[in-house]
Design goal:
The structure is a homodimer.
Chain A lengths: L1 E4 L4 E4 L5 H9 L4 E6 H6 L13 E6 L8 H13 L7 E6 L1 H13 L5 E6 L2 H7 L4 E6 L2 E8 L4 E4 L9 H18 L1 H8 L9 H17 L15 H12 L7 H19 L4 H15 L9 H9 L10 E8 L2 E8 L1 H14 L3
Parallel strand pairs in A: 2-9, 3-4, 3-5, 5-6, 6-9
Antiparallel strand pairs in A: 1-2, 7-8, 10-11
Chain lengths: 356, 356
């Protein structure tokens, strides 16, 4: 078990699920309410049965999927909390992936002006990405995470016990954030990622703790995303747009799959304007391409993708699109205004790697 | 002009509207967006015409009234901000009473995880009450302010220029919070309130600054309502329930009218269990009764009122109803559990003062 103590709370990495009992006992909450989706209610909730004998224990279940990360679902959650007469000394335990963590944290932080919440991320992505940084919220008007706030949980329990319940595609998606952390801050971890061959032989927990530490180190220096933290946006300006665009298509992408594509595009832009070597781009494209097999994007979608990028929260204004780019493997430069033509070229480069 | 500098921002009391120009210039926002309701758009917005020549200036207008303080209206506001391509460096200027300030502040604090907002309260109530304390939010599931968060504006402009646009009933409503502040913290101000005869001869601004200071003094010691700040809830446990109950009736009460009734009831309870003298209760009942002329409450509504009180955010759990009560004029005791029978008796006492 690895404890990562942050300023306000602790992240428990490893076989740590039983720690919940001690945390809940110490806080003496009036109610323990689990927020799950239909998937985690079926596959993950049984791992919490050691809590279920408690009279104050209950479960709110919502439909699974990013398409339910909406203000309408928030209203369902708030209403359920009202109906159970949750008070300010109740706690919400968010059992699920990023959607459950982001939306559950947002609902808890706004219910009666804020009740405690504990994150129990059940996907690799959520353990690595959503467990640090305090970004909470929902999608609105087709823009991902466009309504939300910054707020911290009481604790994060990052236990690999849930990974056995994940489809291989979900695990692979989570790896994208670990790849990102290694590219922006730790070339050594990138070296070990280069050696990944079969996903089912990876020892995930040993990748989670260092990756969480990289993110925590960056976030601690810039909690409200004023500067340095933008390093974490590498791959996300273009990746988010690709993810949003695919959201309502016949075959939506998982977050990590979209970010993997975004990292390829933004590595291409990094060669053009941030000093990344052509050899590094080739290596990044090879490794990410081998793990994810990028999907080609119809060029007729490019104008809509640019529209989505212009609306990105990360822009200072609508007249320019900003990226965080690599100056080398392990180093990043933020606030790089990129030209729309170059973005289109980078998407065309991505398409050359696609197998279809 | 009186400046009340708080930890995070400044409240400008008096003829201070022109200060907006300097504040906006200093911050270099990308857009200046005013949130108004149909009333303030008609009557108050003309006072801001010195800003309107700015190319970045625009107005979002929503329907007036507490019944629109909903998550649906928030969605309208967020969508309008999206449509105007507001970014994180835009500012929302909330021009109106408590509804506009609370809801506009909530929408700004959650749009793209938080943009700046400036409060320009146009009612006496909002200048005295909503300008300090950081409570933002909306009504949900018939419970007032049940969804929200704590957040501070960049500045508050409390200018009496808007009072000439208010109906006398609104001004009188605002006086209730000033009365409350004097009863819980400053017996001297109570002495001057005793002398109020005609409302149109009152010099309002001279009452606003000291009242804001009382509230600020209390809030600064307890920003997240853990203890001392509960003093400000005097009159509000019962008053909020009366207000909520009347919300959907043929004749809704203004907030201050409901709180005036709540203060009479809770003063009655203060005699019973907090040491307030019978003479003080008589004086409070006389003065508040003379200003507000309480309306009788149908006894058949009492069970619903108790239901609303049980759901109050201020309770630690549903098994008890808590009030902040007076131990004397100018002193308060918090966390007083009150019996439901005593609440009913206090409502019956209120009814004996009603003229109808």
């Amino acid at each position: 078990m690895t404890l990562i103590p942050l300023h306000d709370y602790t992240i428990y990495v490893g076989s740590t699920l039983q720690q919940l009992t001690a945390i809940l006992r110490e806080k003496s909450y009036t109610q323990h309410i689990v927020l799950a989706d239909t998937n985690t209610a079926a596959h993950c909730l049984p791992h919490l049965n050691f809590l279920a004998s408690d009279a104050t224990f209950s479960v709110i279940t919502i439909p699974a999927g990013e398409q339910y990360k909406t203000i309408q679902t928030c209203q369902t959650i708030w209403q359920e909390l009202m109906d159970r007469q949750a008070d300010r000394r109740s706690v919400l335990i968010n059992l699920g992936g990023g959607v459950i963590g982001d939306m559950g944290g947002f609902c808890a932080s706004t219910f009666k002006r804020g009740i405690d919440f504990i994150q129990v991320p059940t996907t690799l992505l959520a353990q690595v990405d959503a467990s640090v940084g305090g970004k909470l919220g929902i999608d609105f008007a087709d823009i991902k995470n466009s309504i939300g706030l910054f707020g911290n949980p009481q604790a994060v329990i990052a236990d690999p016990v849930f990974f056995s319940t994940l489809p291989p595609r979900e695990l692979r998606s989570g790896l994208a954030e670990i790849i990102k952390h290694s590219l922006i801050a730790e070339a050594e971890q990138w070296a070990s990622i280069r050696t990944i061959d079969q996903l089912d032989t990876v020892d995930w927990p040993t990748l989670v703790a260092p990756s969480v530490r990289i993110k925590q180190h960056i976030v601690a220096q810039d909690p409200f995303e004023q500067g340095l933290r933008k390093a974490l946006n590498f791959g996300h300006t273009i990746g988010h747009a690709i993810e949003s665009d695919a959201l309502h298509s016949a075959s939506p992408l998982l977050h990590g799959e979209a970010i993997a594509a975004g990292m390829i595009c933004e590595s291409y832009l990094s060669v053009k304007q941030a000093g990344l070597s052509q050899a590094a781009l080739q290596e990044i494209s090879d490794i990410i391409g081998r793990i994810y097999t990028p999907r080609a994007i119809d060029e007729r979608r490019f104008p809509h993708l640019l529209d989505l990028m212009r609306n990105d929260k990360k822009n200072r204004n609508r007249s320019e699109i900003n990226c965080s780019l690599l100056s080398g493997i392990g180093t990043v430069v933020v606030d790089q205004a990129v030209a729309e033509n170059d973005i289109i070229t980078s998407l065309q480069y991505l398409n050359t790697l696609a197998k279809n």
